[in-house]
UniProtKB/TrEMBL annotation:
Protein name according to UniProt: Uncharacterized protein
Source organism of this protein record: Bracon brevicornis
Bilayer topology term: Multi-pass membrane protein
A Pfam family recorded for this sequence: SFXNs
Keyword Cell cycle part of the UniProt annotation: no
């Protein structure tokens, strides 16, 4: 099984459709995503930079 490399520039959903734009908007505005600790943010940044 192979996995594609994570691409931060590529949207997760098809933004040319209403449903794709709606899902993107709902995901971006999820208030639960605002509660990350500084440690978690730095770990995520390190993970991205190591790819």
């Amino acid at each position: 099984m192979t996995t594609d490399k994570f691409d931060i520039e590529k949207p997760l959903w098809d933004l040319s459709t209403f449903y794709g734009r709606w899902r993107h908007f709902a995901w971006v505005t999820d208030p639960r995503s605002c509660f990350a600790t500084e440690k978690e943010l730095l770990e995520a940044k390190k993970l991205y930079n190591d790819c």
